[in-house]
Fold:
Amino acid sequence: KFIQEEELSEECRELISSLPTEKCLLFGNLYQYQGFWVSSGNYLQKIVTCQNQFEARDSDIFLVTLPKSGTTWLKAMVFALVNRTQYDPKSTQHPLLSNNPHQLVHFLEFPIPRNGVDSSTPRLISTHLPLVSLPESVKKSGCKIVYLCRNPKDNFVSRFHWQNKLRRQEMGGISLEEAFESFCRGVYTYGPFWDHALGYWKQSLETPERVLFFKYDEMKADPGNHLRKLADFIGCPISKEEESFNLVDQILELCSFDHLSNLEVNRTGKLLPGINNSNFFRRGEVGDWKNHLTPEMAQKLDEITKEKLGASGLTF
Ligand code: A3P
Structure:
């Protein structure tokens, strides 16, 4: 816990008492804030503090995801890309070899101890916040936002496994059925999925120079060209010379699931008490939902997705 419940500000207590509440499957309560669910008063206070105090810079690069959409991979790739002059991707001293990507690119709304590597300028900042909840300074600044989305069926399955890993010791497992029901209702941290994705999707259509919208599934299919697009978008394009010595492949290899997940730091390290670095690596594949969802569940999620995304142009 970063802030104990008793340390919540008066403003936050008042806010909480005005918000719709549901039980969280993981632990504690969820509060519906600005249309999305937030787990616990602690997080809510963190979010409100960020909204009030965070000062964005035009040079900032925001990496935005729903949990379990490939945040860890995106962080690794952007860190390697932005810092490639300082840290050669082939170096045996590269920070990604001894740090989990979450220790190198921090979340706006919750603190994770740094291991002494400064991400310097441009600042790389990640968040799970929906567009509507970003601090005003982020919306007003010229900073870049990369949004990574994942097909909702795999996102759900990945989330289900994650929840059970975090819960298992204390409370026994969550059933697939109850997790599925919450997902369909959108009642889980940072849900609903569709509204979160749609907010950034629409913004990416309105201001493509500010918001780049990627899908995990497409990035898996063609990681090289996604990395090039990322580099162009954040203002550090891959040069001809870099292409000639296969920089793209070097970064992809450094950040690949197999490479990162087998590093000592990611096999045995801990990000926070109760959160092992290995929890962020499971299968890293597209379509694992087929091994978990019944045909009825898959059909139901497809129907909700179709209905919610409507004519927005966003499809999965
Ligand atoms: P699965 O549970 O389907 O395996 P997040 O980083 O947002 O928490 O998302 C975690 C998901 O991304 C997990 O999906 C995890 O295995 C996958 N992942 C982690 N590192 C990855 C990498 N380097 N490449 C591809 N997928 C990765």
Summary: The first strand starts at residue 21 and ends at 23. The two ends are 36 Å apart (CA to CA).
